[in-house]
Amino acid sequence: AELESRAKNFEKSRIAFQRAVATGGADSRLWLAWGKTENLAGNFEKAKELLQMAVRKNSQGNKMKASPQNGKLPDEAVELPRLQNPSNSRQHGSSSSPSNHFAPFTFEDGDFASLNGASRSASSARNLADALRELSNISSQNGDLEMAVRYLEQATEVDSSYEPAWRHLAELVRRHHGIQAVRDMYSKALGETERNVHAKLNHWWALEERSAGFIDNARDLLRRATCAEPKYMSAWLSWALLEKTEGAADRACELFQEA
């Protein structure tokens, strides 16, 4: 199915996915991969249903009650959990963090509590975070920025080391709230993640600062990124390009050599 998807043979891919879930429908990875294929094909509503199923299969671990026939999903795949009212939401982060701009949401029937349980494997959490990020992309494409942010916030809680979710969250937060909210978000991310992802987080934060015109801040963050991971070439290149743009040709050459 994935080979056909890469070749953009979407009808053949769908047939293969239908066969796969008919025999292994409890595996959330199948629903995730199928959802990504439908998203690639531009079938966003179908992709959303499939990704919701991936979330439910991953969070609940329940067996399928029915197999899809002719591409039709069971009713349980259609609805994702309800949103909480802001007054009842679990608050976290600083007062100006993105989590306080948008009310977080949780899964129904206590599902979210199981996501962080000791029995959940790292790969399972990564798959769940990936599905939530894909759902965020669809919401963003549909113009629902608030829901897109909520999905990404959930993804970072499920798997705090999943760097793409933090980066996409920063991009959405900047568009809606500006650079200060981005700073709050990355500060929160650095406090909640393992050190092995700090180089990327500092690098991406630096790019946001540079775009906003805060060159000294960007330079300092790029220094932190390269200190955290001296072999991280992308950070060295970004720093070199920054210095080149600022007219520091000699310094830029030194940084290009480091890269």
Would you kindly provide a brief summary of this structure?
The protein has 259 residues and is mainly α. 67% of the residues lie in helices and 0% in strands.
Task: Report on this structure.
Residues 62-120 have low confidence and may be disordered. The protein has 259 residues and is mostly helical. The longest helix has 20 residues, at 122-141. The protein is 67% helix and 0% strand. The chain has 14 helices and no strands.
What is the terminal-to-terminal distance?
39 Å
* Approximate strand percentage: under 5%
Oligomer: single chain
Q: Could you tell me the mean pLDDT? A: 78
Number of helices: 14
- SS content category: mainly alpha
Search tags:
67% helix; mainly alpha; 259 residues; 14 helices
Give the topology, please:
Elements: H1 2-6, H2 10-24, H3 28-40, H4 44-60, H5 98-101, H6 111-115, H7 122-141, H8 145-158, H9 163-177, H10 179-192, H11 198-211, H12 215-228, H13 233-245, H14 249-258
